[in-house]
Amino acid sequence: MTMSREVARVCGRVWLLPLALFCLLSAGTAFAATLQSAKDAGWIGEKPDGYLGLVRDEAPADVKALVDDVNAKRRAHYGKIAKQQGVPAAEVEKVGGATAIEKTRSGHFVMDQQGRWRRK
Amino acid sequence: MRKGLSMLAVLSIAALALGCTPTVQVQAPDKPIEINMNVNIKHEILVKVEREVEEMFENEELF
What we know:
The structure holds two protein chains of two kinds. By secondary structure, chain A is α+β, with helices and mostly antiparallel strands. Helices cover 55% and strands 10% of the residues of chain A. In chain A, helix 4 (61-85) crosses helix 5 (89-103). The radius of gyration of chain A is 21 Å and the shape is elongated. The relative contact order of chain A is 0.14. Chain B is built from two helices and no strands. Chain B has helices spanning 2-19, 43-56. The chains are: A alpha+beta, B mainly alpha.
């Protein structure tokens, strides 16, 4: 069975549009690492101070950049909540830390009260 | 021949068993991870802050 030339042209390119759409939709951040992938890989974990931390210093550059980016966003959010509620940002951060640790999936890293990284 | 082989088998298993004396290290599990939240906020405010923080962490870009 032979395909007509037109059919062949369409069939050859039919995957392009869905692929392009997929790429556009998944380009949430500019970083190769995502929060989930970095947590799954054990590079980062949640700390009681409300911020992400590196479980090991030798993390890939994109993971480090992601941590900085997310922490900056968190800091801004904590500040906004603190201002709205009339409480110190440090207190909101503690609530953040407790919430983040509590929500952390088992298998992911959290920092305990003694400052040690542990898998939940 | 067969007797020799089975003898060899028995001897090698015995040798292995002797060589591989299992050393089982039992580590007492660490204390469970405590979540202490020492905040000095009025309860009604704390409830609001907690709710807002929960919402904040619904965002997959933040948590």
